[in-house]
Design goal:
The complex is a heterodimer of chains A (about 140) and B (about 110). Chain A has about 140 residues and is α+β, with helices and mostly antiparallel strands. Chain A contains 4 helices and 5 strands. Chain A has helices spanning about 1-5, 20-35, 40-60, 110-115; strands at about 10-15, 65-75, 80-85, 120-125, 125-135. The chains are: A alpha+beta (about 140), B alpha/beta (about 110). The interface between A and B is medium-sized, with 31 and 25 residues.
Chain lengths: ~140, ~110
């Protein structure tokens, strides 16, 4: 079991809209290999990872040329993702309130933050490194 | 993403499939805007075949809701799955976009 739990799932490519399906597929594969993980945990974690991936796709420059690498891992305690992208340096507005009901945008990051126990962004050399963790069995804030 | 469109007379049902995300949300929102412009401002978005929504999809629904209401209509959602319901709740949008169980319930009064 320890060997399985140590497995890291990796996807690499360009941060373009068509590649978002690869992110979904990697999460589906990791979940299928860990049937003991609560589907709600997977669903909420997937929601967060996709919002962050969307952010890279939408705002990463130069558009269409940004590359990324996604690493997923699941252990007894948590689901974790590391997302590295080669886009420009980015300063996210962490901790922002959920936009009001009328807003048509601005929910991505607050939504990701609501379902994750940890979200960090670090600039290392020419790479953005997002770290996302959700504790298994965590009850999200309503 | 593909979506079906059914004009039932009193309302129009849009039936998106798959991921309702930053790829598929803009065309669906554009179609809603067209419908509203044509005077068809009573819209039901049937989400029974959507397995995932992101914040772009939410934005399209809110934009469509606002456009429909400005023309005296409304946009209602039906048959949302677990992920859609969870995301609506987390973003507090379930207050203005409450999911109806079925299209039949959503179209009530139309």
């Amino acid at each position: 079991m320890a060997g399985e739990d140590d497995e890291t799932y990796v996807a690499e490519g360009f941060a373009v809209p068509e590649e978002l399906d690869t992110v979904h597929a990697l999460l589906a594969q990791a979940a299928a290999d860990h049937p003991d993980v609560d589907p709600t945990d997977v669903m909420l974690f997937e929601t967060a990872v996709i919002e962050i991936a969307n952010n890279v796709v939408e705002y990463g420059k130069p558009e269409g040329e940004v590359r990324w690498r996604l690493e997923l891992s699941i252990d007894d305690e948590r689901i974790a993702a590391e997302l590295y992208d080669t886009g420009q340096e980015f300063t996210p507005g962490m901790g922002a309130a959920m936009p009001g009901e009328d807003a048509e945008s601005g929910r991505g990051l607050p939504l990701a933050e609501a379902v994750l126990d940890k979200i960090e962004l670090e600039r290392v050399d020419d790479t953005n490194h997002w770290r996302m963790v959700r504790r298994r069995g965590h009850v999200p804030q309503a | 993403m593909f979506y079906e469109e059914k004009d039932a007379g009193g309302y129009v049902a849009l039936v998106p499939e798959g991921k309702f995300n930053l790829v598929s949300a803009p065309p669906l929102k554009a179609r809603i805007d067209d419908l509203v412009r044509e005077g068809k401002a009573r819209i039901v978005v049937d989400l029974s075949a959507v397995d995932f929504i992101d914040s772009s999809g939410l934005g399209a629904l809110i934009g469509g809701l606002k456009a429909a209401r400005q023309q005296g209509g409304d946009l209602r959602i039906a048959a949302a799955g677990d992920q859609v319901k969870a995301v609506l709740k987390l973003t507090n949008l379930d207050r203005i976009l409450s999911p109806y169980a079925t299209v039949e319930e959503a179209r009530h009064g139309w």
